[in-house]
Amino acid sequence: MIDVDLTTLGLEFGGGAVVGGVLGFATKQVAKLVAIIIGVQLMAFRYLESQEIVIVDWNRLSAGLVETQERTQDSHWLESVLSMLAVGSGFTSGFLIGFHRG
């Protein structure tokens, strides 16, 4: 019979939820900043390209993004998520709450 300590399980879940919430909030803030930086950079590239100062090969840039997306879809992430279910579920719920509130 499996000996389950509910106190330890609760602490792991709660600790994971707190850490996940903080990281979710921080991730959303960083994502906003990165989106702004990338947007400004793309606007600058478009402006410089319209002034014929810079020549940007947009097809080559987007081809690299498509290849990266195809590689990430092949990974087996489900196996690693299932291996840490107790801490992972708390972390995930906390992360989503923090990300949503951020």
Summarize, please:
The protein has 102 residues and is an all-alpha fold.
Write up what this structure looks like:
This protein has 102 residues and is mainly alpha-helical. 83% of the residues lie in helices and 0% in strands. It is built from four helices and no strands. Helix 1 crosses helix 4. It is elongated and about 70 Å long. The N and C termini lie far apart (43 Å).
From the structure above, extract its key features.
102 residues, mainly alpha
Structural class: mainly alpha
Rg result: 21 Å
How many strands appear in the DSSP assignment? 0
Question: Unreliable stretches, pLDDT < 50, 5 or more residues?
Answer: none
- Give the rounded overall mean pLDDT: 75
Q: What percent strand?
A: under 5%
Binned, the helix content reads over 70%
Cα end-to-end separation: 43 Å
Order of helices and strands: HHHH
Compute the number of helices. Answer: 4
Q: How would a textbook summarize the main sheet?
A: none
**Global outline:** elongated
Q: Could you give the topology of this structure?
A:
Blueprint: H1 6-50, H2 58-73, H3 77-83, H4 85-101
Helix pairs in contact: 1-4
